Amino acid sequence: RPARDLLLDAVSTMRDAMDTPFVPKALGNLHEDADLIVPKLVAHFDNKAPDLTRMRTWPAAIEILGMLGPKAKAAVPRLRQLLDDDEDDVANAAAKALKRIEGKQHP
What we know:
single chain; 107 residues; mainly alpha; 65% helix; 0% strand; globular
């Protein structure tokens, strides 16, 4: 599915989530492709991105995981780690995503 692959590439190359606001919504609606999307997004968090890039793109990637709901269960361990991220936007996005994936509130 070429469109899915282009959208995944856009997550890692966009300078700012607002550059391409359709990306999270589009990927988050591809529930049937969650088994391919989730590992690629989790790997995105392992990139040693500059703080500004991380602050701008990671919340969008986390939002996609939340939109995938329980199908993103494989991302839960990494999202739990991100609850303690220095960037509030990242930590807050992780809490919201975990709630959507697991169905319970996180601090």
